[in-house]
Amino acid sequence: MKAGVLYGVNDIRYTDFDDPVCGENDVIIKVKACGICGSDYPRILKKWKYNLPAIPGHEFSGVIVAKGEKAQNVNMGDRVVAVPLVSCNRCDNCLAGNFSLCDNYKMLGADLYGGFAEYVRVPSTNVIKIGNIDFESAAMIEPLAVALHGILGIKPNIGDTVAVMGSGTLGQLVMQWLKIGGIYNIIAVDISTDKLNKAKSLGAKACINAKEKDPVEEISKLTREKGVDITFECAGSTVTQEQSLLVTRKKGKVSYLGIAYSDILLSEKAFESIFRKELTLKGFWNSYSAPFPGQEWYRSIDFLKNDLINLESLISHRFELSKIREAVDLVISEKEDYNKIMILPK
Q1: pTM surpassing 0.85?
Q2: Pairing of strands 340-344, 85-86
């Protein structure tokens, strides 16, 4: 088969690769669409920590073209989404249903070969039928479930005022879930005009360009110096990680969803906000709960089937698999804004 194979830091090539071999409990998926996750870029470009050569890509959907004799939950030709986390099902966290916190998990697109390929081997327990959901939208079910995992965990209330720090794909998905949950007073923060325009189209009541105005000052004005009820940190930036503590009201809550890309040194004021305002800080990792893969995945699929979530409009670029190098270079160059980038094997 053809695949986008990573041989070293920033060395990804479109090349021939061995076809996957189907085990008795596995299926082989012909990949129809695979999104590039925000976590893929730093791993590919800076610090890949898994075995090489590797095939990245964990947000993918496709069609089952082979199945093992013990794979009884799916049929040949089923349209499916892949659940990338392969849990051990033995550790204390798995036994407690906390699959996101599995001590010994493997991840498709990292430890295991992923979706930047024509075909992928996946455990049959890690596929879910998608019905008539289009393949590109289905490839975004994983980040949609990640966003919902954070929403369900922080428990917003109807009428809350919420700040979303970082209005990229993850922030946009959080905003859509918030609106579904009855949260309409949303303040979106970003440094990209395009992303803020998208946030506005998704229902953000106020949009703050952090290149032009201080979000802490602006949110203070918008909330009459009280601060927001909940802040969702979705950028993974040291700046927004600190600002999240400053814009949240007393007894408020902060949900950290963005991946940390570097160390963070908090100012005295930011750190003291944690205890002086008695903030609740919670982090959310992955998207899984019991029964595996969890309500985050099944609800995401249900809402997509009922056209209550808009994913297609979040895609800014599409590349054929043969152009995987160009897709990565788009991110490196920083010559244009991008949102969700989709890789499409033929």
Answers
A1: yes
A2: unpaired
